[in-house]
Design goal:
The complex is a heterodimer of chains A (427) and B (83). Chain A has 427 residues and is an alpha/beta fold. Chain A is 34% helix and 18% strand. In chain A, the strands form 2 sheets. In chain A, strands 1, 2, 5, 6, 7, 8, 9, 10, 11, 12 and 13 form an 11-stranded mixed beta sheet that branches. A two-stranded antiparallel sheet of chain A has the order 3-4. The longest helix of chain A has 16 residues. Chain B has one domain: ACP-like (Non-ribosomal Peptide Synthetase Peptidyl Carrier Protein, Chain A). The chains are: A alpha/beta (427), B mainly alpha (83). Chains A and B meet through loops of A and helix 2 of B.
């Protein structure tokens, strides 16, 4: 007899995060609640003559590294994406109260841990050796530190995962997509538990391409904490960031059977692409596809736009913010004072690229579990085009300590790709 | 450089590559690096690079193929240092 798993419920039982404004769940939670920015000035970027010399990068001590990696693993280790991803992933696993499998793999548990670019600094180191004719000096770990699936491979080995172990990649949608893919896999009965998340390398070699595109702000090198201004009239580009976020997704039965704390439920998800048609391009989203992605997520969750209490937007602090608001408004069928609350974490973290969706999903779950909405910082004056669509009251500039039951979280990325998740407070 | 000096330096290199459940005390001249000390075979290339740096010699692919035990390594290093 075939079991029908299509109604299987999926819950979040663990969180881990390595963000520019907080490493570890506690520090991150405090920073998010207090609206603390993690954006800094980087002298290295000044030396390299970047226009934008500010960014968001988690600060990790050598001592902290040793809590997660052996001395042997740290030998010749130079992959910040793996570093962030492993810390966030292992933290989430521990937070969920799960054990590592010492002897044999757990075939019901896997990881979908996305990346944008991985191991760029290791690659650079290798390229210098290769060009000097010293390929044999690369050592044994240059492949595992630079392959796109490096982070899932490290985590899979550390945790003894025997289900899917993979890394998805869809630019700035990556983190949200990873969670959506994990949700679907558990919902359809192909896994009990998935460590879902994403990571992004940071630093000059990752951020340079964006600087060259002139889409980063250049006027805040002396005032970095003010540089990232989502939703603001003065938004002048996104501040590049990096880090990792991780969520343990689990079937409700599995979570209940082991008495795990449930931090939220995921009730719906959707992933699509605008096909780089109808106004969409490599770098701009097709608005029809964005709206469709949101409405499909709502349909998948079995709710309507009026059931959404709050939105955690993509909102990078570019001129596209107003278009995003328009898309949310149309998709939810709500405008003016009827529009739900909306916030963007990027004012505090910058745009953590492939890590943004998962870091922001961690913040979203914290909001549901701990009854607050974090403030939109650096948004003294809301962009006038946004105020044509929604009321200023929808954009909290101070933390709101309120119970929120349903939050929609979406991310949009280069390649005209979209993903949307519907999180619900578990009562 | 005496055989003992080589051995001591070599032991120091090898210990970094031992798995967590194998200690430095398990290293002896006859230990097979991968089969007995359970060193991941991919790390043999790292051991060779460290040996090259510490002893200031260059090892060939043939040298590496002959490398099974700690004693093999000592012999290969000694031969290189004499030439």
């Amino acid at each position: 007899m075939q079991t029908n798993y299509s109604n299987r419920r999926v819950v979040v039982t663990g969180l881990g995060v390595v963000a520019p404004n907080g490493v570890g769940l506690h520090a991150f939670s405090e920073a998010v609640k207090t609206g603390t920015s993690g954006i800094r000035f980087f002298p290295e970027l000044e030396d390299l003559r970047f226009s934008c010399q500010i960014g968001g990068m988690p600060q990790i001590s050598e001592e902290l590294k040793r809590n997660y990696f052996t001395d042997l693993q740290l030998k010749n280790f130079n992959s910040s994406g793996i570093l962030y991803g492993v810390i966030a992933g292992m933290d989430a696993w521990k937070h969920a109260g799960l054990n590592t499998n010492k002897d044999k793999p757990d075939f019901d548990a896997g990881t979908i841990f996305g990346v944008g670019t991985l191991g760029v600094d290791k690659y650079r180191e290798s390229i210098h050796l290769i060009d000097a004719g010293k390929t044999r000096r690369l050592g044994s770990t240059s492949v595992q530190q630079t392959m796109s699936s490096g982070v899932s491979a490290y985590l899979g080995g550390m945790l003894g995962l025997g289900n899917i172990v993979t890394s998805n990649s869809s630019a700035c949608t990556t983190g949200t997509e990873a969670i959506a893919l994990a949700y679907e896999r558990i919902k359809t009965g192909k896994a009990q538990c998935i460590l879902a998340g994403s990571t992004s390398d940071g630093g000059p070699y990752v951020w340079a391409g964006f600087d060259a595109m002139r889409i980063l702000p250049h006027g805040f090198n002396e005032d970095p904490k003010k540089g990232s201004q989502p939703l603001s009239a003065n938004a002048s580009g996104f501040v590049p960031g990096c880090g990792a976020g991780a969520l343990v997704l689990e079937s409700l039965e599995s979570a209940e059977s082991r008495g795990a704390t449930i931090y939220a439920e995921i009730i719906g998800a959707a992933i699509n692409s605008g096909g780089q048609r109808s106004g969409g391009s490599m770098t701009a989203p097709n608005p029809i596809a964005v709206q469709r992605c949101i409405t499909e997520a709502l349909q998948n969750a079995g709710i309507s736009g009026k059931n959404v209490d709050a939105i955690n937007g993509h909102l990078t602090a570019t001129t596209k913010d107003a278009e995003e608001i328009e898309n949310w408004s149309r998709a939810l069928g709500r405008e003016g004072s009827d529009f739900p609350f909306i916030n963007s974490l990027k004012g505090m973290t910058g745009h953590c690229l492939s890590a943004s969706g998962s870091i922001e999903a961690v913040a979203t779950v914290l909001q549901l579990h701990e009854n607050f909405l974090f403030p939109n910082i650096n948004c003294e004056e809301i962009h006038p085009d946004i105020l044509k669509v929604i009321d200023a009251e929808s954009i909290p500039r101070m933390r709101k300590n309120i119970v929120v039951n349903t939050i929609a979280k979406a991310s949009f990325g280069f390649g005209d790709v979209n993903a949307c998740l519907i999180f619900k407070k578990k009562i | 450089m005496t055989e003992k000096e080589i051995y001591t330096k070599l032991e120091n290199i090898i210990k970094d590559y031992l798995p967590e459940d194998v200690s430095k005390e398990n290293i002896n001249p006859d230990s097979d690096l991968t089969k007995e000390l359970n060193i991941n075979s991919s790390h043999l290339v790292d051991i060779v690079l460290d040996v090259e740096d510490v002893f200031n010699i260059a090892l060939s692919n043939d040298d590496m193929e002959q490398l099974r035990t700690v004693k093999d390594a000592v012999r290969i290093i000694q031969a290189k240092k004499q030439t």
